[in-house]
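Lecture notes, part 5. Sequence design as translation. It can be helpful to think of inverse folding as translation between two languages: the language of shapes and the language of residues. The source text, in structure tokens, appears below.
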């Protein structure tokens, strides 16, 4: 069986293409740097025992969240996995709100009650992070069906890992979306591993998402998930297709997580040298060089990086100083009526 495990993807396209424009590229770079700095800070805070439990970082996968986030419109909806910090930040939620939630502080996105794996902000179109593998794909279809029924123009995007492609809900959701031509985009973040198992060891096709697309009458789309421009262009086309009533898209983004599956995973199962090879294709490094290729000055780039670091530092101090959530909200937001009492 041929696999992509031993090689990092090469940059998509040939030559320089200015269809994106400097303003959008600077936005994409800022988003990637913000995700990188915020998640690295979350890791540091965990080592200081200020983040409890576990969490799942997207270090190395920033281009996927940035590219899709940059292509979305206000009102579009994101459905994330437990590895959802990046996508939440990419939709405009502040670093303070995300770190506050991870630190279980009252200034957190959900006042400290949700934690790392349940980030949600309806105001930003982030319709939840889901810890159950594949559970959110049918939910994204439901949201898209609502938009289709009402004639709304928002598009739902469902992000998931490569392991989800072997879950029944993946195939059910793809079939349902294709039959009804729903305005939904499915994004597989293929970082080559499920939890500890290489996806290639347990999947009958080389591209776990892309090679299944034809079964539902969809185009095979496999792209370099470490190149934010490639992700942005592909996502933009998928959104245009969905808004035009032409149905769903399935996009497989080849990427790589720099750390283990979660905080408890040292990732010793990876072959020697694999991480180093993929770090040569670090999305931040790629995009920094891209900006320089387009003539963006070193000062502009450095100012973005310094501004993001300052934002993360300030957010960290605010979260450290914030109180824990009060006990009187413990039993609120449990059921749809806002209460907690069991109802038959």
């Amino acid at each position: 069986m041929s696999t992509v495990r031993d090689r990092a993807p090469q940059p998509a396209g040939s030559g320089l293409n200015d269809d994106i424009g400097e303003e959008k590229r600077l936005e994409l770079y800022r988003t990637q740097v913000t995700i990188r700095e915020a998640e690295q800070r979350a890791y540091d805070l965990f080592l200081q025992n200020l983040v409890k439990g576990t969490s799942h970082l997207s270090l190395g996968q920033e281009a996927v969240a940035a590219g899709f986030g940059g292509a979305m419109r206000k009102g579009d909806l994101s459905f994330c996995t437990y590895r959802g910090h990046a996508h939440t930040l990419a939709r405009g939620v502040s670093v303070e709100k995300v770190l506050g939630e991870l630190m279980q502080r009252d200034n957190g996105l959900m006042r400290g009650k949700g934690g790392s794996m349940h980030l949600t902000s309806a105001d930003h179109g982030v319709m939840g992070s889901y810890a159950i593998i594949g559970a959110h794909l049918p939910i994204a279809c439901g949201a898209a069906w609502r938009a289709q029924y009402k004639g709304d123009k928002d598009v739902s995007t469902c992000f998931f890992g490569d392991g989800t492609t072997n879950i029944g809900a993946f195939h059910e959701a793809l079939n349902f979306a294709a039959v009804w031509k729903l305005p939904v985009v499915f994004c597989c973040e293929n970082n080559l591993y499920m939890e500890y198992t290489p996806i290639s060891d347990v999947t009958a096709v080389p591209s776990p998402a892309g090679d299944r697309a034809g079964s539902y009458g969809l185009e095979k789309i496999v792209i370099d998930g470490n190149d934010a421009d490639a992700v942005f262009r592909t996502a933009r086309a998928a959104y245009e297709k969905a808004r035009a009533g032409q149905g769903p898209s399935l996009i497989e983004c080849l990427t790589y997580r720099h750390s283990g599956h979660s905080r408890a995973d040292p990732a010793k199962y990876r072959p020697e040298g694999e991480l180093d090879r993929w770090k040569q294709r670090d999305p931040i490094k790629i995009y920094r060089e891209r900006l320089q290729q387009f003539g963006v000055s070193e000062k502009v780039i450095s100012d973005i990086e310094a501004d993001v670091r300052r934002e993360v530092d300030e957010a960290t101090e605010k979260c450290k100083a914030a109180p824990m959530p009060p006990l009187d909200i413990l039993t609120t937001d449990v059921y749809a009526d806002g209460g907690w009492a069991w109802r038959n």
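The translated text above is only one of many valid answers, since several sequences can fold into similar shapes. The first helix runs from residue 22 to 47.
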